[in-house]
Write a structure and sequence with these properties.
With about 260 residues, the protein is mostly helical. The chain is about 75% helix and about 0% strand. Helix 3 runs parallel beside helix 9 and helix 5 runs antiparallel to helix 10. It is globular and about 45 Å long.
Length: about 260
Amino acid sequence: MIEQFWFILLGFAAGVLGSMIGLGGGIVVVPVLTFLGFPPTAAASNSLFAALSNAVASTISYSKQKRIEISLGLKLGLLSIPGTVLGAVISTDVAPEIFKILFGFVLIASASYIFLRKKIESKEKTLSKQIMIFAIGASFFAGIISAFFGIGGGIIFVPLMVVGMGMAMKRAAPTSQLILLFSSLSGVIVHTLLGHPDFTQAGFLAIGSFVGGLVGARLSIDIKERYLQIIVSVVILIAAGKLFLDSATGNSGFFGF
């Protein structure tokens, strides 16, 4: 058990980043576990425990800062639940090579969002019926992404709220954490029923991610984001490239081991 304490550090790093950008810590945890040779279902299910813990800590902190749109967060969170059930189920039989390719594209989308997030903020919009219908479909899809990849679904929810609904980024990222609380909890339950997670590893990830979520929510108040955006985007793109390379060469772990 002692040799698995590094999962706490991984969860902490993922929690800080996930809380600050609103995407959930899985965007860090899943690539690391995949590079180390974890099967897709183990990487995704373990990561969701970290995403859940991170969402709880972030939601507590952001609610105290009064930066969460509670009503919208509850609605989108509940709408994501059916998708998480489907995502967890279909992840059971996915081949590692396919998982790496698909997750590589998710990482590219995430890096693009992180790098461009300041440019996609828009003026407040009136929520039309068309936007709400789109939000329902997007929430279902985000639920699938959340449980299938173990990342929480923030990559869908934050742009949806900012671009589609005209919400300011400083409220969209915190609201995303409330939504991720629902999507990650339902994903954790389904993955657990399917027997996917390693509870020791998942528990350590959750511990680190909870503390990281508290720290990240505090840092988000006054940190200068630009350099962080560039560094994180570059690292994520490198990870995506490694995933594509591994899928092409058949490597199952970091540096092929």
